[in-house]
Design goal:
The protein is of the alpha/beta class. The chain has helices spanning 8-30, 41-44, 49-77, 84-105, 110-132, 138-141, 239-242, 245-254, 286-301, 318-329, 351-358, 363-367, 371-377, 395-410, 426-443; strands spanning 148-149, 190-194, 208-212, 226-230, 262-265, 280-281, 284-285, 311-316, 336-340, 384-390, 414-420. Mean pLDDT is 82; it is low at 32-38, 41-46, 153-171 and 180-184.
Length: 454
C-alpha cells in the first residue's frame, strides 16, 4: 500500500497498459467494414463512410464529455481549474465513447472495451493526481494510513532542558534558545493518527494526525507551541501527510535541535463533498469544532503552551482562507495563521447563494465572517500571518492574497507574503508551508529564525 502513485515509473506503466489496450480496441472497432470484399484501399483499412461517421461521433462525444467534466469539477469545487485538465480527462472520455460504440456497434468487443474503459479511468485519475499531488500512495487512496494510532500515555512532551549560559542567550525567547544539549536532536519525529471528537460542536470529523518532534523522547518535560493544519475542498486530512508533511517537519527538526511545534492535521469538512467553509452551518458546526473542540482536546491530551500567542492555524486553499478567518474571529485561541492559496472569504457560489446556504439568509453573519471586512473595521495587536501562493494560481486567488496581505498590514498584523512558481497544487502548498515554518515557528516561540524572519 506504500506504492507511490506520483512516481514517473508508475505513470509510465499505466500509460503503457492504457496505450496497448486502447490501440487494440480502437483499431479493431474502427476497421469494421462491410462484410463483402473491400473494393478500395480505404475500405481495406476500414475507412468506410459508416466508420468515418462513427469516428466523428466518438470524437465529438469524447470532447464534449471532457468539457462537461471540466465544467462540473469547476462548479463542484467552486474554484478555477486549469484547462489542461480537459486533456487529462481525454483518455477516460475517449474510452467512454468507444465503450458506447462497442455496445451498439460491435458487441463482441464489449469485454475488451470495458477493460480499456477501466484502465482509461485509472490513467486519467493518475494524470490529475500527478498534477495536483492529491494522494501520494495507493494506501492513501484507499484510506489506509501507515501512521500509528495515538495511544494514551504518549502525551508527555519530554525534552532535555538546561538553563542557557551567557553564550547561548539570544535576544528573542524561544524553547530552542534554552536548549543546547539534546541527545536525540538527529532522530526523526513520529506521525500519529488520532480521533478528535466534536464534543461541543457535534461535528463528525474524519481521523486527524499529529506530528510529534524528536524532542518528545528526551528526559525532561516542557510544553510546546502548536500548529493546527486543515485541507481544502474537496479534501481530506490525509492530503497533508501525502504532501510530505512528516519529511518537512523532520528536516526542520534536524536543523533546530530536534525541536518543532506540535503539528496537528484536523478535518474541516467531514467528507470529500461537504464544503463547509469552516463556519457553523447546516453542513456542520465546523467553526466551533476548530475553535473549541480541537483546542480543548489538544490541551487535555498533550503538553502544550496554553496561551494563544503560541498557537497557529494554517491550511491550503479553502483551509487557508479558514485559517485567516478563524484567527481574526478567535484571537483568544489563535494568534497566527498560515494562508496558502486561500480565497477572499467563505463562498459556495454567488454571494446570495453563500448567505442562504451557509448563514441561514443572514447578511450580518456573512459580513462577520469576511476577512476583508474584519480587517477594515478592526485593529489587531499581537496577531501575525503568512500568505503563500503560486504565480499560476487563478486570478481570484492571487488577487485575494495581495489584497488580504495589504489589508492585514494596515490592520496592524505582522504579516508576510510569498509567491512561488507554480499553480494551485500540493507542489506549491508543500513549498510555501516549508518556507513558512521558520517564520511561524519563530513567532510562536518554538525556534529562532534569525534576522531573515524579522
Amino acid at each position: 500500500m506504500n506504492l507511490s502513485i506520483l512516481s514517473t515509473n508508475f505513470l509510465i506503466y499505466v500509460c503503457m497498459i492504457f496505450s496497448a489496450l486502447s490501440f487494440y480496441v480502437v483499431t479493431t472497432i474502427y476497421k469494421l467494414g462491410p462484410k463483402e470484399k473491400p473494393k478500395s484501399k480505404k475500405a481495406l483499412l476500414g475507412l468506410t463512410k459508416q466508420n468515418r461517421l462513427v469516428f466523428l461521433f466518438s470524437l465529438i462525444i469524447s470532447l464534449a464529455l471532457a468539457v462537461i467534466i471540466y465544467a462540473f469539477a469547476a462548479r463542484f469545487t467552486n474554484s478555477s481549474i486549469p484547462s489542461s485538465v480537459v486533456l487529462m480527462c481525454l483518455p477516460f472520455t475517449v474510452m467512454t465513447a468507444v465503450l458506447l460504440i462497442s455496445i451498439f456497434y460491435k458487441r463482441q468487443m464489449r469485454t475488451a472495451s470495458g477493460c480499456a474503459f477501466v484502465v482509461a479511468l485509472i490513467f486519467s485519475l493518475v494524470l490529475v493526481n500527478d498534477y495536483y499531488h492529491y494522494f501520494e500512495t495507493i494506501g492513501q487512496v484507499l484510506g489506509i494510513s501507515n501512521a500509528r494510532l495515538y495511544q494514551a500515555g504518549t502525551d508527555d512532551v519530554t525534552i532535555n532542558y538546561n538553563e542557557p549560559n551567557n553564550q547561548t542567550v539570544l535576544n528573542k525567547a524561544s524553547i530552542q534558545n534554552a536548549i543546547y544539549n539534546l541527545s536525540h536532536k538527529n532522530e526523526k519525529g513520529n506521525l500519529y493518527k488520532l480521533n478528535i471528537p466534536g464534543t461541543i460542536s457535534h461535528f463528525h470529523p474524519r481521523n486527524a494526525y499529529v506530528y510529534v518532534p524528536p524532542a518528545y523522547s528526551t528526559p525532561a518535560r516542557i510544553n510546546l507551541p502548536v500548529i493546527v493544519l486543515t485541507a481544502g475542498t474537496p479534501g481530506t486530512p490525509d492530503n497533508w501527510p501525502g504532501a510530505g508533511l512528516e519529511g518537512i517537519m523532520d528536516q526542520f527538526a534536524q536543523s533546530h535541535d530536534g525541536i518543532t511545534p506540535l503539528v496537528f492535521v484536523v478535518d474541516n469538512t467531514g467528507s470529500v463533498t461537504n464544503d463547509t467553509e469552516c463556519v457553523n452551518s447546516p453542513r456542520g458546526n465546523v467553526e466551533t469544532y476548530l475553535s473549541v473542540d480541537v483546542p480543548s482536546y489538544i490541551k487535555n491530551h498533550f503538553r502544550v503552551i496554553d496561551s494563544p500567542q503560541h498557537w497557529a492555524i494554517g491550511g491550503l486553499s479553502m483551509g487557508g482562507m479558514c485559517s485567516l478567518m478563524l484567527t481574526l474571529r478567535h484571537t483568544d485561541v489563535y494568534h497566527y495563521f498560515i494562508d496558502l492559496g486561500g480565497e477572499i472569504g467563505p463562498e459556495v457560489g454567488s454571494r446570495e447563494t453563500t448567505i442562504n446556504t451557509l448563514f441561514n439568509g443572514s447578511s450580518q453573519k456573512w459580513a462577520s465572517h469576511q476577512p476583508a471586512l474584519l480587517l477594515k473595521t478592526r485593529r489587531y495587536k499581537g496577531i501575525g500571518g503568512f500568505f503563500g501562493g503560486g504565480n499560476q494560481d487563478a486570478v481570484n486567488v492571487t488577487q485575494a492574497q495581495s489584497q488580504l496581505y495589504q489589508e492585514s498590514k494596515a490592520a496592524g498584523i505582522d504579516a508576510v507574503s510569498e509567491v512561488v512558481n507554480g499553480a494551485h497544487t500540493f507542489n506549491v502548498w508543500a513549498q510555501t508551508y516549508k518556507d513558512s515554518l521558520p517564520w511561524i515557528s519563530d513567532r510562536i516561540g518554538a525556534t529562532q529564525c534569525g534576522p531573515s524572519c524579522l
